[in-house]
Amino acid sequence: MDRRTFLSLSALAGAGAAIAPQAAISAVKSRPGMKNDTTPIATRQLGLTGMEIPILSMGVMRADNPAVVRAAYNAGLTHFDTAHGYQNGKNEEMLGTFFKGRDRSTFTIATKGKADPRSDNFEQDYATLFDTSLRRLQMDYVDIFYFHAADDVETLSNPRLLALLKKFKDSGKARHIGFSTHAHKPAQIDEAIASGVFEVCLVSYNFKLNILPELNAAIRRGVKAGMGFVAMKTMVGGAEDAEGNRRVNGASCLRWVWQNPDITTAIPGFTSFDLLDNCLEAAHSPVLMPADAEYIAALQTRPMLFCQNCGNCIDQCARRLPIPAIMRAYMYNFGYRHPALSKETLTELALTGNECAGCRACTVDCPSGFKVAEKIAAITPIVNVPSCYLT
Ligand code: SF4
Ligand code: SF4
Predict the structure, then answer these.
(1) Ligand 2 centroid vs 315 CA: distance in angstroms?
(2) Are 73 and 37 in contact (CB under 8 A)?
(3) Pairing of strands 200-204, 174-181
(4) Which CATH number fits domain 3-299: 3.10.20.30, 3.30.230.10, 3.20.20.100, 3.30.559.30?
(5) pTM for the full model?
(6) Ligand 1 centre from 308 Cα, in Å?
(7) pLDDT, tens only, 308-321
(8) Which ligand neighbours the alpha carbon of 326 most closely?
(9) If residue 42 lies in a helix (H) or strand (E), which one and from where to where?
(10) What distance in angstroms lies between residue 346's CA and the mean position of ligand 2's atoms?
């Protein structure tokens, strides 16, 4: 999308059309102790799940301070997103401790888990994983259970996966079933619609996506079929530049996301009170203003940190390295400032920290302008740093 198209789209939405047209929009109910109870946050329906949640939710992934969760909850956020793997389970445990004894009708929880449906013990392993998550959360059920990070289209139609996910729902342990994807391929959404099992999709969604028109069209098809859409990676990596030096204005990024009424909520991963305040500022004033649009249009021309996951680099690479995932790990470290998550991502890929050694010249030409060999050299050595030194 070029700058002119972007600005004209923004102008269309900026007059208030962005937030108003969704049929079921209302204001989040206040609760005792709520910080901003006089300026309610808009809510939207999540597909046909019956869940009505504020347009701002909390991606808990990197948060390790329960006081930030408390502040978000007291400010009126009701939806909290975690995963089995985040912080080796401590993230789910923190939420479990925080929500223990609280009125279950005042919040909703999503967690995610990944397993290979082609593996011999898939059913048993995946059920054990899910039960472990529930135990850590100290809950009988989660509101959404996502199949975590679906990389391809085929997995979403795997009969063993679909049968087990249905079983999770029938057991009452998962009220709704979803999938998350970093690949953000429209074909995945179409496959999920066809399956009849997936009710929610957690998708990377930001102004940097090269395939935005195609993705928006697929999301529209999903909404028509009754699916709900939750946006992640809304901060485009958290930094304005490819090196991670200048922090991005999160409020503008969120306002841009909320222009699309098909996106129910965004789950930025704020870890501090300042970042929460920045997100709340946007949630209480969610319409994209000309200054936001100008700011975002200016960022369109910069490489930033968000990898498109187009996959073009893999065939170009002499060693067929999993470059998109390595770029994500780079973003986690230099954008999110979360080296432990970066190491976790690279360790899953079984990297050694010396991937490009001996390669005379990099043959990869990334359409996003990433100098991939430099980034790989900068981030992969983290796999050899003892975890006790990483946060
Ligand atoms: S070519 Fe560039 S944008 Fe595309 S997946 Fe590779 S690193 Fe990411
Ligand atoms: S330098 Fe690294 S990324 Fe580039 S072609 Fe060689 S192995 Fe692949």
Answers:
(1) 11
(2) no
(3) parallel
(4) 3.20.20.100
(5) 0.88
(6) 6
(7) 988 899 999 999 99
(8) 1
(9) strand 42-45
(10) 16
